[in-house]
Amino acid sequence: MKNVWLALCGGNLLLPLALAGPVPEEDIALAFGDKHMVSIATGSRQSLKRAPAVATVITAQDIAAMGATDLDQALASVPGLHVSYGPILNVPLYGIRGMLSQPLNVQVLVLLNGQPMKTAYAGDKGNEWGGFPLENVARIEVIRGPGSALYGADAFAGVINIVTKGPAALKGTELGARVGAFKAGDLWLQHAGSLGPAALSAYLRVGKTDGHGKTIEADAATRLDNLFGTHASRAPGPINAGHDALDAGLELGWEKWRLRANKFMRHNLGTGAGVNSALDPDSHIDMDRLMADLSWTDAQFAQDWVAGATVAMSRYQFVTPRGLTLFPAGTRIGANLFPNGMIGGPARWERVWRFDTHAIYSGLAGHSLRIGLGHDDTDLYRAETRKNFIVSPTGVPVPTGPVIDYNPIQPHILPARRTSNYLYAQDEWSLAPDWSLTAGLRHDRYSDFGGTTNPRLALVWEAAYNVTAKLMHGRAFRAPGFSEQFTINPVSTGNPDIKPERMKTSELALAWAPVAELQLNLSLYRLDASEIIRVVANPPPATGATYRNVGRLRGRGGELEMQWDALRQLRVSGHLAFQRTTDRATGLDAGYAPHQHHYARVDWRASGEWQLGTQLNRVADRKRASGDARAPVPDYTTVDLSLRRTMAGSGWEIAALLRNAFDADAREPTLPGGTLPNDLPLAGRSWSVEARLRF
C-alpha cells in the first residue's frame, strides 16, 4: 500500500495519507491529476502541504473534469476568489477575499509562466482581455493573500500563475475543434517534439464568438435622455461582447536553458456595455500582446549553491481603428448636442523589459536561503488621442466637429516611463522535524514614487500525520498605474505625487483528514488595506477630481474546503467562503464582493473511457458601494454539466459541455450613479461540443 497525496478538488492544501484501499498512485493521478506540488508560494517547487501560503492548484485534469474552456470558468472553483465582470469590454474582474475593485482589476497579480501579465497604463491585466483559452494550460496556481515579499508590486490580495504546457506536458500532436452557443468556434493545434538537441512545444489557436449578447435595459445614455428629452440611447439592446482571437505559444528547452514566447491577439473586440456605460454596438478594439522570456535555471555553480536568471520582455498594443462611441448620435449634455455622437479614439503602445537573478544556498543544516535581485523598465512610449470633443475646465464635454488628432490639444495621457530595482531574501528553515519557518523580505525602489519594503513570516506545524497548521503574516503593495499618475482629463486628473496602496494580512490555516477518504481545510484571515487610490473631487473653487490616497479597508473572513473520495472513481468536493470588508472612512460595507460563496463539484469516472462532472456555484449576499441606494444585488446559483469520453486506443476525445444549465439570471453589480441601473447581466444557458485527436 503506497502513500499518495490526495488533494482537495481544485488543488487545495494537501495531506499525505495511507489509503484504506489498494488504490495505486497512478490511478489517482489519472483520474484527478497530480497536484501535490506548487512553486508560486516560494519560487521553488515544494509540497503544497508545507507551502507557506494558502494555495490552490488547478491541473489540466481538473480543467477537463469541470469542462472549463476559459480561465474565468476555472478560477470560479477557487475558494475566496470571485470572478466578477465590468461593463467596459465585459472584462473579468478577479476579487480575492473581498478585494474587488471597479472598473479596473488592480489588486490581483496575474502571471504567465511567472512573468506579469499587466499593462503600464492601468496597472492591471488590461481591459482588452477577450478571454484566456485553456487548451495549452498545464496548471493554474493561486495564492490567496499577500505576495509582495516575493513578487513585488500588485501581488496585493493574491497571485494567479498560469503555467502553459511545455514539452514534458505535451506528448506528440493534438488537433482540436470546438463549436458552441453565441456562434462560437475554436480550432487549435499543439505539438511537442525535438528540434535538434532542444525539446520543443508549440501551440496555435484561432477562435471567434459573437458573445452572449444579454440585454441591457437602460444605460448612461438613457439617463441623459431622461434629463434632456432626447432619444439617443441604444438601450434596450445587447451587450457587444464578441471578438476574433489568435493565440500562439512556443517553448524550447535545452539543458538548463528555456525560451518561451506567447502571442495574444484580439480583433473586433466588442465594447461590452460600452466604454462609458452607454451601449456601443458599432465600435471595436484591437489588442496585441507579446510575451517572451529566456531563463537559465537550477544551475549549480558552487558547493551548496544553485542559481538562475531570467530576461523577459513584454509588448502591449491597444488601438481603436474607428474610434469609440462614448455616447450615441443625438446625445445632449446640457446645452451641447452631439449629432454624430461623442466619439473618442485612444490608443497606446507599451513595452517592458525585466531582468531577474536568484541564488539558493543550502549549506546550512535545515535552511534553504534564497536571495535575488532584479530590474524592471516599463515604458508607455506612445499614446494617441482622436476625438470630436474637448473637455472644458469645468468638466463638461463640448463638441468640436469631426474626429481629429487631439494629441497636440488635449491628449488623454503623454508617454511615460518608470524603472524599478528590487532585492529580496527568503529563508526556509526546518526548526524541527515537524516545524518549519519561512521568513522573507523584499525592497522595491521605483524611479517615480520611491521605495517600499514588504516582509512575510509563515510558521508551519505538522501536528500529526493527518493534521497541519499554518500561521502567516505578510505585507503587500500595489504600484499606481500611469493612468492614476499622469491622466490628462479635467474630470479625473492624474496625480504624480500619488503613493502605492498598502495592505497587511494575518492568516491561520488548518488541514485535517479525520479518515483517509475525507479531507477538510479551514483558512481564517484578517486584512487591513490603506492608501487606497480613489478619484476625489477637488475642493472649491476648483472643479473636477484628482486621484488621491484616501481609502482604507478592513476585512475578515475564511474558507472551509472539503474533499470526499466516496468511491474509487467518485470524488465530491466543495467549499464555503465568507468575508466582510468595511470601508473605514464610512463604516459601511466596501461593496461588490459577495459575503458568501458556495461551490460544490462531483467528478465521476464511470469507466476507463467515460467521465461525468457537475458543479454548482452560488454567489450570495452582495452589498452596494457607499452612496448607492439601489436594492442589494440578487443572489444567483449556476449549475454546469460536462460529459467526456476518451477513446485511448484511437486517440480521440470528445466532450459535451453545458453551462448555467437552468438559465439563472445572474448579474454583477455596477458603479452607482445610474449608468447601468439594472446591473450587468452575465451569460445565460450555453453549450459547446468539442473533439480532440492525439497522435
Please explain how this structure is put together.
Helices cover 5% and strands 57% of the residues. It has a single domain (176-694), classed as TonB-dependent receptor, beta-barrel domain (Maltoporin, Chain A, Beta Barrel). The two termini are 34 Å apart. The protein is built from six helices and 42 strands. Mean pLDDT is 90; it is low at 1-33. It has 695 residues and is mostly beta strands. It has a 22-stranded antiparallel barrel. The chain is globular, with a radius of gyration of 25 Å.
What do we call the CATH homologous superfamily? TonB-dependent receptor, beta-barrel domain
The CATH architecture classification is Beta Barrel
Could you list the spans in which at least 5 consecutive residues all have pLDDT below 50? 1-33
Q: Could you describe the largest sheet, including whether it forms a barrel?
A: 22 strands, antiparallel, barrel
Q: N-to-C terminal Cα separation, in Å?
A: 34 Å
Shape annotation: globular
Number of strands: 42
Assign the structural class, choosing from mainly alpha, mainly beta, alpha/beta, alpha+beta, or little secondary structure.
mainly beta
Determine and state the CATH class: Mainly Beta
When the domains are counted, the total is: 1
Rg, Cα atoms, Å: 25 Å
Q: Which topology does CATH recognise?
A: Maltoporin, Chain A
Mean pLDDT: 90
Helix content: under 10%
Given the structure, what is the number of helices?
Answer: 6
**Proportion of residues in extended strands:** over 45%
